[in-house]
Amino acid sequence: MLKRVGVALGLLALCAFSILRGARPPRAVSATAPDTVFSAERAMRNVEQIAQRPHPMGTADHDRVRDYIVDQLVALGLQPQIQKTTAIGTRYREAGRVQNILARLPGSEPNSKAVLIMSHYDGVGAGPAAADDGAGVAAMLETLRALRARKRPLTHDVIVLFTDGEEAGLLGAAAFVREHPWAKDVAVVLNFEARGTTGRSLMFETGPGNLDAARALRADRDVTAGSVTAIVYRALPNDTDLSELAVLGLPALNFAFADGVERYHTSEDDVAHLNPGSLQHHGSQMLTMATTFGSEPLPRARTGDGVFFDLPIVGLVVYPQRFELPLALLALALVGTLVVRVRKGVIIGVLASVVALALSGGVGWAIGKRLDGPGMWSGLYATALVLLVMSVTAACRALAMRWSSSRGLHVGALIVWLVLALALSSRVPGVGYLFTWPLLFAAAAALLVRGRAAAEWAAAAVTLVILAGFIYGVSVVMLGLFGGGAIVLCVMTSLVTLLLAPRLEVIAGDARWWPAAWLALAAGACLLIASRTVHPGADHPIRSALVYAENADSSDAWLGALGGSADSWTHGVIGEATTVRPPAWTASLSAYAGGFAGRKVQRVALAAPDAILIGDTLMNGARRVTLRVSAPTGTTGLQMRAHGAKVLTASIDGRVVDTTRYRSGARYRDRAGDWVMQYWAVPDSGAIVALSIPAEGRIQLELAARRPGVPPIPGVTIPPRPLGVVPSQTGDVSIVYRERSF
């Protein structure tokens, strides 16, 4: 009995260690630390100033934050500059008047290549942006202070770029690449982001040929990184400012912390909820990498991609991708030897493993699609799923024992692991290590006669250290327990259970069906506890955002929400069901997917956007319509939608709109043939928009001007939000619609 308990506690300890190692950031360093050390306590003083209030583009608080950053740079003895220009995004249909802040810390080698460090200083309208991206900005200021405190400068210049308009569509980064002369001096890029308010700062994205950059990353002994995240991120429809810098083809590292995603882009992305340890991890890596790249030769050596992952004590393991397939072939040799030795029951083991994986994936799909709200990010629900999948896997093995032996089942499971390792190593280099290294240790342990128990513990340690934290991070922190996240959690849990079966059998003893039954009961208990304890509230906020919309061309006005609403407070304000369907013009209030729902209210008569014709010419057989588009004071964003004729080409403020790198239209609500552009921080003089259309064509231009807040509406009382319901994304806004014909 003591042996069983010891094995169970040992495996639980390995899981807990792996998860905590990948989730818990380091402690914040005190402000009394030496000047050359990064201190989160010092950096938090900057966050407190930056994150006083929301500061999206086009607001007075945005300019307040801009001025604060400039003042801090001047205090550090630097000569900051502001790049004011119209930016046209190349990833999304967004444009705007940006104000990038730049400074250059000189190195000892004049006219040499430089290291670029960047974060964005704008935020969303709903929250003060302490984490996203006040933490990145504060880390940059503290890093500059630490670098200035060095007795000797770095070899190379360090350029700091505080981008504007990232939340609006990566606008500042696009403007830097397209127009700023310093872009040609950059040799390596470091970007810092946040998708939550806590957690470790994960290096999740790289530039092309990342082997050299990963080797440089080893300079930081506390790094969290894996080539699998870099490979997967390339395939996801996500972007940061680094996406605009990608056209330079430079070595790059992108860092972000992502736990606490429930507060991401909400009013609770504030100083109170930002984990200083996350800021410390951000900044310590920033300072280390700036020092490393700034001291070593630039430009960096050109390499291919690498395989890399971090281990305790060892640090970051890095090797070229060309080694991945040979390692998988070594695993093939070990498993092949086992098959020759065992033979009996191996095919049954393969079938039982495949069935267990299929059923586990089905469990993830069935339960994951029913989870919503805070349950999607709950570790307690994740624990219940893990226990349930272990029960399913144990039941499959118990049934298969009728036709096979324990050893035959284990070798069959190793064959399934081998297929995955070979397929990923050959088809998706950089990912296969997740399966190859655990398989190598497990297969080697199975081949031993003497010392097998110790070898099985070694295999369990390697497997859980590499995979337990990774599985938790992907399924609970990044994706959430719905859709793919729940399926990943369940399938990977089943795979790990199959691989570690020899150790788990020590716990089960001679019992055949009881382990599955006890695991199922434990899963049920966790689900029951989770259902009673994981609810919306202060610890699990629910997102909301109201929209007051009026048509300047009529007396129509509505109060509602975009994209639907799930909370009872919003339902109470806008009505759970309306008898009158919103008019057609409300479909043009936002370019983003999701309809408008609400109720009709009395019109307030806010100032409206407008467009006037200032040029109408024929060029190359096409009609070129030039408009001055203006928005009332206080407007943060102006959506333009042209229809009625196909827009052949477009320019804004004299800059051509390049659509060749656009993301697909999944982010937008498309109407076939429409031209859509969102313009942020519209200047008082307006924007000059030139559209080329067929010679005989006419266009209808729909304008929707957005400003923060909902005005007092006659006959409408909006109660305060209850605890646990928070503004998100844009926050509450007013939108004025107008249409013009040309």
Q: Return Rg in Å.
A: 28 Å
**Helix proportion range:** 40-55%
CATH architecture of the largest domain: 3-Layer(aba) Sandwich
Beta content? 15-25%
Distance between the termini: 84 Å
What's the name of the CATH homologous superfamily of the largest domain? Zn peptidases
Count the E strands.
24
Low-pLDDT runs of 5+ residues are: none
Oligomer: single chain
Output the CATH class name of the largest domain: Alpha Beta
The main pleated sheet reads as:
15 strands, mixed
Structural class: alpha/beta
Q: In DSSP terms, counting alpha (H) and pi (I) runs of 4 or more, how many helices?
A: 19
**What name does the CATH topology of the largest domain carry?**
Aminopeptidase
Domain count: 3
Shape field? globular
Average pLDDT taken over every residue: 93
Describe this structure in words.
With 742 residues, the protein is an alpha/beta fold. The protein has 19 helices and 24 strands. It has a 15-stranded mixed β-sheet that branches.
Structure in a nutshell:
This protein folds into 3 domains: about 1-20 and about 320-535, no CATH class; about 30-305, Zn peptidases (Aminopeptidase, 3-Layer(aba) Sandwich), CATH 3.40.630; about 540-740, no CATH class. Helix content is about 40%, strand content about 20%.
Q: What characteristics describe this protein?
A:
742 residues, Aminopeptidase, 3 domains, 19 helices, 24 strands
Outline the secondary-structure elements.
Layout: H1 2-23, H2 40-50, H3 60-75, E1 81-88, E2 94-105, E3 114-120, H4 130-148, E4 157-163, H5 171-179, E5 186-194, E6 202-206, H6 211-217, E7 224-225, H7 227-235, H8 242-245, E8 252-257, H9 276-295, E9 306-311, E10 315-320, H10 324-342, H11 346-368, H12 379-400, H13 406-427, H14 433-447, H15 452-479, H16 484-499, H17 501-508, H18 514-533, E11 542-544, E12 547-551, E13 557-562, H19 568-574, E14 596-600, E15 610-619, E16 622-630, E17 637-643, E18 649-652, E19 655-656, E20 675-680, E21 687-694, E22 700-708, E23 725-727, E24 733-741
Parallel strand pairs: 2-20, 3-4, 3-5, 5-8, 6-7, 11-23, 12-24
Antiparallel strand pairs: 1-2, 2-4, 6-8, 9-10, 12-13, 13-14, 15-16, 16-21, 17-20, 17-22, 18-19, 18-21, 22-24
Helix pairs in contact: 1-15, 1-17, 2-4, 2-9, 4-9, 10-13, 10-14, 11-12, 11-13, 11-16, 12-16, 12-18, 13-14, 14-15, 15-16
